[in-house]
């Protein structure tokens, strides 16, 4: 019996040794195949390893990682979950589970896996960064900030972590902290574009014009594309530096003749300068640039600018046609409707003017300034009377009075609209209110004489 037991033990040991050898061979073959980017062969080899030792974590981990690299995330999750079940203390399966869930946009599950990793090992800046990414995708900026601050404490040269920290602080309205984080990211990796883009946007919001220009100039040097140059040129114009804007945009238009928006931007700067200075030469330059854009850029913005330029030349009929076309483009520039209303009103096409202003309201939304809001509603009321629609005019005049209740001329207009709509008692009451506030108002007195006839 002793001999039989010894023989069985020897046989078992021999079989176990053979299994272990076969297992290691399969793992080595899988690693070699993966090194040559032969993922199919790698999966076959790791599957062989699993068949030999089905309760070993490593085979599932490695095959799951291959599936993840192939973009087969559901298969990856199955293997990685099995690996994690076999060895709950192993952090690597948890990280890869987080990565696979993140790739599937299952951000809550990804964050859960990364948190589980951090509970095992809280000294990995890489995984803390991934945790913050998942939390940021969920809109959880406060815990993301905590994770990122821990990450940069562990690795003070982690440029991507500082960049994400800047985004989180910006979203939390901690703007100066956001600037500092973005500047740190740029100092660590000067060639990174995204932190510079975000910092330029932040500087614009903070009114730091020169700092914004510095970032846009750096972006143009790092990525000298037409769109970068156009953005820089328009920024010069917004900063009150039209000469630099014209020089930058003019050179861009010559260097990139197929980039139609360069001509649109150049036309915009010339047009704004022409409006400010009343200069016919500037207006001619604007028209030339905008004509150069047509054919390569027939956007609503380009056509709107062209219509505005034609309006300044007093070619009102051509301006109206151009602006009508601009309103029919998608996406429509809200300014197309605003200027169409202006030129249509000049041409006494009041119905077109009113429709354009209504569409402008729908696109732009109400003005925050109560005086401008009142003036706009009054204009719509006037146009409604022009097209003999007093009932709608009443609505607009009342909206104007809601914004500015003490406006006697608007009260007089409201009384006129009420009279035309047949509500004579309301008209008289409104007129009385207007005269109580301003007894010598000429418009109100003229209405009273009309009402007394």
Using the CA coordinates, give the radius of gyration.
35 Å
CATH superfamily of one domain: Tetratricopeptide repeat domain
Q: Which percent band covers the strand fraction?
A: under 5%
Distance N to C terminus: 134 Å
Oligomeric form of this entry?
A: single chain
Got a strand count?
A: 0
Element-level helix/strand string: HHHHHHHHHHHHHHHHHHHHHHHHH
Reading off the top of the CATH hierarchy, the class of one domain is best stated as: Mainly Alpha
Overall body shape: elongated
Biggest sheet: strands, sense, closure?
Answer: none
Low-confidence stretches: 5-14
At the third CATH level, what is the topology name of one domain? Serine Threonine Protein Phosphatase 5, Tetratricopeptide repeat
Please, what is the average pLDDT? 94
CATH architecture of one domain: Alpha Horseshoe
Enumerate how many helices there are, as a single number: 25
Question: Which percent bin holds the helix content?
Answer: over 70%
Structural class: mainly alpha
